[in-house]
């Protein structure tokens, strides 16, 4: 039998483009990962700017080649941080947000508010008023009741607010049931087939301080090919044409959502964002021509922009044999990466230092949190790892830190950006004092009785 060598198993295509392994030790942008871990501590999230810029440019180029009047917005929910907004704003991207917190982070990163679209299936009256008040570019209407709320807020500050309607074109797409967002039963959007979307168009035409400038849909995440987009674009443009005829509403902009897939393991199919963007743009071009419409086209990927750029570094604690398996505990887990527990996501971790001649073993890498389900990677071939060794999880840039928690009272990790050979700390490690910040020291009435 051929002995699997660590060298052959190294999944370079999952790591940032600046990664290399001189002498079998991982470096990111020329900096040894071990040096980053020693300097900034672990768990540590490291982001590579070259990979982010490349991903953004691929999608822009692919899209523009198929439909020149187009743009890319970054879906902030994948990772929201001022340094990232600044980088992507410089790269010419727009942004979508779903909360006042993401707006604050975007503006802290220097993004002009007119470049932001505000989404979400729940927006409070306060959030709507704040968004309108700071001149947010577009508000994406998810429910007919939001239209008078936006109109009232806009009237108060004397503006006309541009809005899109989030349509539900009813298309089955997305890699996991929890990330499919355009089914008949979905909580998102205005259904075209039930007539609710048309009611929203009428409500917009009757609201003085709201201007309906376009439509939006988002089908889901990890969409493997362009066919769901083709069907949703067709349904949306059919609807848009009917709205031109019936209500004289011309769609100036159409956003077809995100969902560009990434690979988390070598077993996943190869993905090519540039090619997918080009296919989407081309099918949009054909459909728009057939409908005699010329709207601006936008896509809004999140994961495909940042996932591959991020590497999570953990330090190994103990190793155990349990029920026939080898269990390796690391210093992070469900608190900084809930994806394996939530979606059954599978990762392909590697040892930061390869030891030549040692044969990888099959292990479960578990987190430090008090949940039996806190397993970061099950049945992976790695190592052998000893206490104090470092493990790198590639493709950790999206939906990990943005979904991180303080479960078990564990502070969230630090974040370092590697850029042109330099390591910059962009988010310091949380401390227990940070976690106590919002707690108010009180004496409860029952405590003062005795
Ligand atoms: N636009 C809208 C309106 C969205 O809701 C989303 C993602 C995107 C764009 C970006 O989708 P992407 O290109 O990243 O696939 N936490 C899950 C993913 C949830 C995605 C929610 N919406 C995960 O970790 O897989």
Give an overview of the whole structure.
The chain is globular and about 70 Å long. The protein has helices at residues 6-9, 33-40, 49-66, 82-90, 100-108, 125-133, 146-157, 196-205, 227-247, 273-290, 303-306, 339-343, 432-436, 445-449, and strands at 19-20, 27-28, 31-32, 44-48, 70-75, 94-97, 116-118, 138-141, 161-168, 190-191, 210-216, 253-255, 296-299, 310-322, 325-330, 350-351, 361-366, 375-382, 390-393, 414-419, 422-427. Strands 4, 14, 15, 16, 17, 18, 19, 20 and 21 form a nine-stranded mixed β-sheet that branches. By secondary structure, it is an alpha/beta fold. Bound molecules: ligand LLP. Ligand LLP binds next to α11 and α12.
């Amino acid at each position: 039998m051929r002995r699997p060598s660590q060298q052959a198993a190294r999944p370079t295509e999952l790591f940032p483009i600046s990664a290399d392994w001189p002498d079998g030790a991982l470096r990111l942008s020329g900096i040894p990962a071990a040096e980053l871990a020693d300097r900034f501590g672990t768990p540590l999230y490291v982001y590579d700017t070259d990979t982010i810029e490349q991903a953004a440019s691929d999608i822009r180029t692919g899209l523009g080649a198929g439909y020149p009047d187009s743009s890319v917005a970054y879906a902030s929910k994948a990772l929201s941080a001022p340094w990232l907004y600044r980088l992507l704003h410089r790269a010419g991207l727009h942004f979508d947000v779903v909360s006042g917190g993401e707006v604050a982070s975007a503006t802290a990163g220097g993004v002009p508010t007119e470049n932001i679209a505000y989404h979400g299936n729940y927006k409070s009256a306060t959030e709507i008023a704040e968004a309108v008040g700071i001149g947010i570019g577009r508000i994406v209407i998810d429910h007919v009741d939001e239209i008078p709320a936006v109109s009232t807020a806009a009237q108060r500050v004397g503006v006309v607010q541009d809005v899109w309607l989030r349509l539900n074109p009813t298309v089955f797409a997305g890699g996991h049931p929890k990330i499919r967002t355009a089914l008949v039963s979905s909580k998102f959007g205005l259904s075209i087939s039930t007539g609710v979307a048309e009611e929203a168009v009428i409500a917009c035409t009757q609201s003085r301080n709201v201007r309906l400038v376009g439509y939006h849909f988002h089908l889901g995440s990890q969409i493997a090919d362009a066919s769901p987009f083709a069907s949703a674009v067709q349904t949306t443009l059919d609807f848009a044409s009917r709205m031109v005829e019936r209500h004289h509403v011309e769609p100036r902009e159409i956003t077809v959502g995100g969902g560009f897939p990434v690979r988390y393991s070598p077993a996943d199919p190869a993905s090519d964002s540039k090619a997918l963007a080009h296919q989407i743009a081309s099918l949009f071009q054909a459909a728009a021509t057939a409908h005699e419409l010329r709207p601006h086209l936008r896509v809004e990927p999140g994961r495909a922009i940042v996932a591959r750029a991020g590497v999570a570094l953990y330090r190994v604690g103990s190793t155990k044999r349990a029920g026939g398996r080898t269990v390796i505990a690391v210093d992070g887990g469900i608190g900084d990466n809930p994806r394996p527990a939530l979606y059954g996501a599978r990762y392909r971790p590697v040892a930061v230092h390869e030891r030549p001649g040692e044969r990888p073993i099959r292990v479960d890498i578990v987190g430090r949190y008090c949940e039996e389900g806190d397993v970061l990677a099950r049945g992976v071939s790695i190592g052998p790892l000893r206490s104090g060794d470092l493990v790198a999880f590639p493709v950790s840039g999206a939906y990990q830190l943005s979904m991180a928690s303080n479960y078990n009272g564990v502070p969230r990790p630090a974040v370092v950006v590697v850029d042109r050979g330099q390591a910059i700390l962009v988010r310091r490690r949380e401390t227990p004092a940070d976690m106590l910040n919002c707690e108010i020291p009180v004496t409860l009435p029952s405590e003062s009785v005795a």
